[in-house]
Design brief:
Blueprint lengths: L3 E2 L2 E5 L28 H8 L5 E6 L2 E5 L13 H5 L2 E9 L5 E7 L4 E4 L12 E4 L5 E3 L2 H7 L4 H19 L10 E4 L4 E4 L5 E2 L4 E10 L2 E6 L11 E4 L6 H13 L3 E12 L4 E10 L13 E6 H8 L15 H10 L6
Parallel strand pairs: 2-16, 3-6, 13-17
Antiparallel strand pairs: 1-2, 3-4, 4-9, 5-6, 7-8, 10-11, 11-12, 13-14, 13-15, 14-18, 16-17
Helix pairs in contact: 6-7
């Protein structure tokens, strides 16, 4: 399906998501979210009473893993978090095919210590986190969990759901309409204001991330916070009243000065930093001259396909690279290289 839009078409992919990018980090959540039953307090209580009910634990925005003789586990009995520290929020994440429910619990910050100094050159906290008196527990950031492969991909997706949801609660304790404190409802999927009766729901921030192509070359850019030598697809938040294709064209024009025609949606990726959905697209360049917004990008340039292959394979003569497979940008670039993503 296509339609004219500001000088080009928007093309919906025939093969999307897991079909195009199998194993995409933070996707493939195996839980039935039972969203239609979240307001049924008896149903939720019955789930919590099951012997096979488990919870994941988020502390200081990081998943908590139990160290075992075998593989580490992110799952705890429902009563366990309260013995570790003060629990600030709980939520029902969903139900497995076996009927076993999975909940999420947030641990208060005072139970966790951050060791060392925060690295100023990266956008996330690199300090080691620890829970006092519990050497059997390890706090891990979501990126490293997705990278190291110690957990099943479905477990990583469940932890991503928990991190995003509990992070939303931590930032929305007061009503945005009147400022009064809010209470949790719907098994953790709604906050309600007793003062003005407003209801607040978890939000996901849409971000377009797009590979712009011009024949046998593509446009990549880098920000100063990126690892040295790494170039990636350009990205930006979707603004109010804007479609995906409009956001793609606007962001590319603003950041690199390039105007785009057709835009094709490829796949999306939950990105729990903190609550973002990355919407992966490929776009055809209508102009090619670059005018770089230096406030947004340190550099941007056109790369030939062979050069991008060398970057992906970590053999570029100037030590340039593309993103790690944990990021959807890696898969956008790989799909273009392999001919699976065309426009």
């Amino acid at each position: 399906m296509t339609r004219p839009a500001h000088g080009g078409d928007f093309v919906r992919a025939d093969s999307i998501g897991a079909d195009l990018f199998p194993g995409l980090a933070f996707s493939g959540n195996p839980l039935d979210r039972v969203s239609e039953k979240r307001d049924d307090e008896a149903f939720v209580a019955a789930l919590a009473a099951r012997e096979d009910a488990r919870t994941v634990l988020i502390a200081r925005d990081a998943p908590t893993l139990r160290q075992t003789d075998g593989a580490p586990s992110p799952y705890f009995a429902l009563a366990e978090p309260a013995s570790i520290g003060r629990v600030t929020e709980t939520a029902l994440l969903g139900v497995r095919a076996t009927g076993a429910p999975v909940f999420a619990a947030a641990l208060a910050d005072e139970a966790v210590a951050a060791l060392g100094e925060k690295e100023a050159t990266v956008s996330y906290d690199t300090r080691q986190l620890a829970i006092a008196g519990r050497p059997d527990l390890a706090l891990r950031d979501m990126r490293s969990l997705a990278v190291d492969g110690l957990l099943d991909g479905g477990d990583v997706a469940i932890l991503a759901e928990a991190k995003a949801l509990l992070g939303w609660h931590a930032r929305h304790r007061f009503c945005s309409c009147c400022g009064a404190p809010t209470r949790v409802a719907a098994a953790g999927w709604r906050r309600e204001c007793a003062a003005c009766r407003a209801q607040h729901f978890p939000r996901t921030d849409p971000v377009v991330i797009m590979l712009v192509v011009d024949g046998e070359r593509c446009l990549l850019g880098r920000q100063s916070r990126f690892p040295r030598g790494m170039y990636s697809a350009l990205a930006g938040f979707v603004e109010a009243g804007e479609t995906i294709e409009e956001a793609v064209r606007r962001e590319i024009r603003e950041e690199a000065g390039v105007r785009c025609g057709s835009v094709r949606y490829l796949a999306s990726q939950p990105w729990p930093f903190p609550t973002t959905l990355m919407i992966g697209c490929i776009a055809r360049a209508a102009t090619t001259e670059l005018t770089i917004d230096r406030a947004e990008l340190e550099d941007a340039r056109w790369f030939a396909r062979d050069e991008v292959i060398a970057m992906r394979e970590r053999r570029h003569p100037d030590a340039m690279t593309t993103p790690h497979p944990v990021a959807i940008a890696h898969h956008l670039i790989a799909a273009w290289i392999d001919g699976r993503a065309t426009i």
